[in-house]
Design goal:
Chain A has 262 residues and is mainly α. Chain A has 11 helices and no strands. In chain A, helix 3 runs parallel beside helix 6. The chains are: A mainly alpha (262), B alpha/beta (229). At the A-B interface, helix 1, helix 4 and helix 10 of A face helix 1, strand 2 and helix 3 of B.
Chain lengths: 262, 229
């Protein structure tokens, strides 16, 4: 009931705010339009093997948004309570931390589902890109991107608890710190060797390599999966540990109560 | 805080007083489990609000001038969410009862952010009474209210407090309000408990005409009172 209550709390925000409802789709749709039309232009100008690029770019763009939404759902939900000075009310309710986090995960998953459907339909209409060509492989790939997004969201939320408003820029910045090393739009081999080392430590890198392999209709590389799952488990545990640690630090220093009233 | 120790009994309104920086909010946050004490223990209903949150928190609630309700929800949604968080069963009936009592029935579909100060305070009290708490903690709840609205809120609270034998821990800088509203007061200064007793007892013991006078004496003269036992 408590998870449902917090899930409803975040859903209610969109009930009468067209801007909020619009905001769910606006940026991903704009990205899709810009990336898609740029790629079409390059495709027409260059032809040949370049023609495949639009498939990779659109698929990557839609998939990257899954990770981004997952992270944002956790961090924006926390910031929502801080912005509205409602955080103390949440913290003094008989709500376990994990229940609150679970509600943000559910909220994120719902937003991801809505945006993915909209982007898929738009990509098909504009660029004849069919997300369904990924087949059932899309589900575990997308699922792992979502979990990684949640993990980064927990890490960012922990930093928000510790540093408050000063860390607000991290909400928007951290995903874009990860993006270049996740090799969203290009293979790992493109990166310099030092950057490849970083890339190999991120589960998203392997997800996007797997995505490109599927789009090239290559056989599924099953050996990637233990690495993806293992790294996701690691980052999820790390994100959870940082969040809990920062929460306890904020409580020990009295910051928790002040954060809810600033 | 320095060896602050007190009890709030059922059916009692206790005023926690002191100048800015005395430790009032720190004390409240420790009771609410928002702050971990560096030494000593906090027990609410015999349990720790830090380690036994789910035993304590369903039985208390909190209203503060510095804590708002989500401004981007309507009144009904806001109360619905909190009713569910506190595990209420007859949510609709409970909300109806409270909004009627606090004269908010006509504002159910209004955004919380569009309510006046008085309406927001009454809404905060509605939310705080949803779970029929045994302990209500009020941190300057009438701070932004005009005298008429403040009196109205106090009258409502007093009526509910008597009906339910509710324990209230109340902070305020309005000493006239405290003299009328509180059964017992605790005077804090620089983290120490300086005085404890009913307003009349404290005035008699420390030779003050009004609590305002005692407050100013504590805050400005540096004169220390004996710790009351």
């Amino acid at each position: 009931m408590r998870i449902g209550a917090m899930f409803q709390r975040y859903l209610f925000l969109h009930r009468r705010s067209l801007i909020r409802a619009f905001d769910i789709c606006f940026w991903p749709v704009m990205d899709l339009l810009v990336w898609g039309f740029v790629t079409l232009y390059i495709q027409e100008a260059a032809g040949g093997p370049i023609a495949q690029f639009i498939v990779f770019l659109i698929g990557a763009m839609i998939s990257w948004d899954i990770h981004y939404r997952g992270q944002q759902a956790v961090t924006i939900s926390l910031m929502e309570e801080i912005w509205t000075r409602n955080l103390t009310n949440i913290l003094i309710a008989p709500l376990r931390l994990w229940e609150w986090i679970a509600a943000t995960f559910c909220y994120g998953a719902l937003k991801v589902a809505i945006v993915t459907v909209i982007l898929s339909l738009l990509a098909y209409a504009l660029y004849t890109f069919d997300l369904l060509r990924l087949g059932w492989m899309f589900i575990p790939l997308a699922g792992n991107l979502l979990v990684f997004g949640w993990a980064i969201g927990l890490l960012t939320a922990g930093l928000l608890l510790r540093f408050g408003y000063a860390a607000e820029a991290l909400i928007w910045g951290i995903p874009f710190l990860i993006q270049p090393f996740s090799c969203v739009f290009y293979p790992v081999s493109v990166l310099p060797s030092w950057a490849q080392l970083i890339a190999q430590c991120l589960p998203s890198t392997y997800v996007f390599e797997g995505l490109r392999a599927v789009l090239r209709e290559e056989p599924v590389v099953w050996t990637l999966w233990p690495t993806i799952l293992g790294l996701n488990l690691f980052y999820f545990a790390l994100g959870s540990a940082v969040f809990v640690w920062m929460f306890r630090r904020a409580r020990a220093t009295g910051r928790l109560g002040r954060l809810g009233q600033d | 805080m320095d060896r602050v120790s007190f009890v709030v009994n059922r059916g009692e309104i206790v005023g926690l007083l002191g100048p800015n920086g005395a430790g009032k909010t720190t004390t409240l946050h420790a009771i609410l489990g928002l702050l971990a004490p560096t030494s000593g223990t906090v027990h609410v209903f015999g349990s720790s609000p830090l380690t036994q949150r789910l035993k304590v928190l369903p039985r208390l609630n909190f209203v503060s001038a510095d804590v708002d309700l989500p401004s981007n929800l309507v009144v009904a949604e806001c109360l619905h969410v909190f009713a569910k968080l506190y595990g209420m069963r007859n949510v609709r009936a409970r909300i109806d009862e409270l909004v009627e009592r606090f004269e908010l029935a006509g504002l159910r579909k209004h955004l919380v952010g569009t309510l006046s100060s008085g309406e927001q305070t009454r809404l905060k009290l509605c939310k705080a009474l949803l779970n029929a708490p045994d302990l209500l903690i009020l941190d300057e709840p009438t701070l932004s209210l005009d005298p008429y609205m403040a009196q109205k809120v106090r009258t409502l609270l007093k009526a509910i407090q008597l009906e339910r034998q509710l324990a209230i821990l109340h902070t305020s800088h309005n000493m006239q309000e405290v003299e009328v509203f509180c059964d017992r007061i605790l005077f804090l200064h620089q983290g120490k408990l300086l005085a404890e007793g009913s307003p009349r007892e404290v005035l008699e013991r420390f030779k003050g005409q009004t609590l305002d006078e005692l407050f100013i004496r504590v805050a400005t003269s540096g004169e220390l009172f004996e710790v009351a036992k």
